[in-house]
Amino acid sequence: MQYIRIILPRGKGSDFMKVLKDEGAFGISCFYGEGAAPNEILSKLRIDKTKKEIVTALFDEKKTDVLFDKIKDKLKDVNTGIAFATSLDRKDYMMDYVCLYVIVNRHEGQRAVHIAQDNGARGATLVHGRGSAENVKSPIFLNMNIEPEKDIVIMLIKKELEDAIRGKIYKEMELDKEGNGIIYSLPVSEVSGLVEQRR
Prior knowledge:
alpha+beta; Alpha-Beta Plaits; 5 helices; globular
């Protein structure tokens, strides 16, 4: 089984959801996020965020090559989208890329992106969510628990850059301290639409 993620400009997700459905994917969903381009692009365009959609689905691993051929064709029209998959069945294979996840307090995600880009990463996608930890007491307002807001940073990076980027984010954002966040990575088995990264 493959877990597929397709990160696209806002408004493009529905077309890819249809492709996934037609090819037999299931558990298809789409949610909003923000993209961050490399620093040199940001400075030229004078923007720091672009609106994104993240399409996710589960798919039969045996049919992944056919599906990714169709996704590659559609990504050519989009120009700024990427697609990648993680196998949920195997752990013993060598991959060129990993998907790095950083979950930190709200408004800290952009800092993680900048640290990663300073150490060789290209773009990243930032998603906002809520956290829930058993040992953290949420404030109560009008008899309701207020859950802490979180930033979830998703980055596709070269395997050879993983240790350096993860180590820098862990150290500079003090993730060893309770409540500051977590960082983890998953191997990527298929990639399409990714701009090559340099060391």
